[in-house]
Amino acid sequence: MAPRSAPTGRQRRLATELRRMREHAGVSIQEAASMLGADRTMISNIEAGRTTVSDERVRQLASHYKCPDQALVDALADMANSRRARHWWSEYRGKLPDGHLDVSELEYHAVRIRTAQTVHVPGLLQTEDHARAIFELGVPKLSRLDVELRVAHRMSRQSVLTCENPTPYTGIIHEAALRIEFGGHATAREQLARLADAADWPNVTLRVIPFSAGGFYGAGQSILYAEGEVPQLDTVQLDTAVGASFVDAPSPLANYRSLLDLMEESALPPKESQELIRSIRRDL
């Protein structure tokens, strides 16, 4: 196992799940090390994501821990086996904060994505000009190069919705986000047209919470819920003032699933949502 200096979000998640599996089995770090004929430092490094771990080692650990969930074991082995893969976001390493890359990785491996936005249009459906207008409002102010890197990265992220096997996607958007004219009148019209068109894509469902809904659950939230190969590997990404934050503990994940369900209950059906988007665009 080779040491690594900066594990990705997916690698950290693998490490976390191996620790959870060990703890659920009631096995100490020292006992786990003895099972492998190694010292406790190796287990500590694996569970901290400081060293790589092979798919064979994942299966070996799962066997020692007597994990009964074969689907989970297979999914974790796949995570370990993909450690050598190089993806498009690798070119941004060292150029953008790691959180941006972790979001790309999360979306790429998700089997389904749900998002909720109350102020912004979902990043996976933003136009270049709309995204640029948002990044230009960053504090502290970003350089032109940093803005363009972020715009290019965001546009590349959108491939998960437009590739040959697109990811199923449900986006909940509050009407307020549709009416804020980031970038000005023309940019807003173009953005609304993009949303209305995307609502026709077979893998995309858009639900708008109208002003007429009044108060609603999740007001002010910005949520990305990425479903994993098995439910235990679901992840929530939240936007914060200091960057992306990731949630993977079972109880908070269940709470976010419930919250998204409640937000959908406040939203219009897909066809009515699409009509509202078109109506707002016509009024601009």
Characteristic key phrases:
284 residues; alpha/beta; 6-stranded mixed β-sheet; 13 helices; 50% helix
What would you note in describing this structure?
It is a single chain. The protein is α/β, with parallel strands linked by helices and 284 residues long. The protein is built from 13 helices and six strands. The protein has helices at 9-24, 29-36, 40-47, 55-64, 70-81, 98-109, 128-135, 144-157, 159-162, 175-179, 185-198, 250-266, 270-283; strands at residues 112-117, 169-174, 204-209, 222-227, 235-240, 243-247. A six-stranded mixed sheet has the order 3-2-1-4-5-6, sandwiched between helices. The chain starts with 8 loop residues before the first helix and ends with a helix. The model has no long low-confidence stretch (mean pLDDT 94).
**Total strand segments:** 6
Helix segment count? 13
Question: In percent, how much strand structure appears in the residues?
Answer: 5-15%
- Major pleated sheet: 6 strands, mixed
Class from helix and strand fractions: alpha/beta
Distance between the termini: 58 Å
Report the C-alpha radius of gyration, rounded: 21 Å
Uncertain stretches: none
Strand order, biggest sheet?
A: 3-2-1-4-5-6
Q: What's the average pLDDT? A: 94
Helix and strand string, N-terminal first? HHHHHHEHHHEHHEEEEHH
Helix content: 40-55%
Anisotropy-based shape: elongated
